[in-house]
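Proteins fold reproducibly. Next comes a concrete instance:

***
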Amino acid sequence: MIVPPVGGLSGGLSIGQAGGLAGGQSTGGAGAGGEAGGFGGQLTEAISSLEQTQNSASSASQALATGNVADPESAVVTVEDAQLAMELAGQIRTKATEAVQSIFQTQV
């Protein structure tokens, strides 16, 4: 199935190519931000960064609980950063969900 072009976009996008975008693959051209990874690649990178932040917060909180940390303030800051990053990810998810629902409710 070929999706017809919209606006100034050239060429259609097949279902197979759209599935490749979700996996971080490029369809041959540059992505929206100029990177070859496109939206899927950026999303994967952001989730990976969030996971690294959560892992570092987990190890910092364990070190703080066991008393193996030299600077308790840095451990608390690391945990707070991870909490803020998770709250931001939740807000972004909520806004994206609302946007998709709004698009689906738009009548053509």
About this structure: Helices lie at 15-22, 38-66, 72-105.
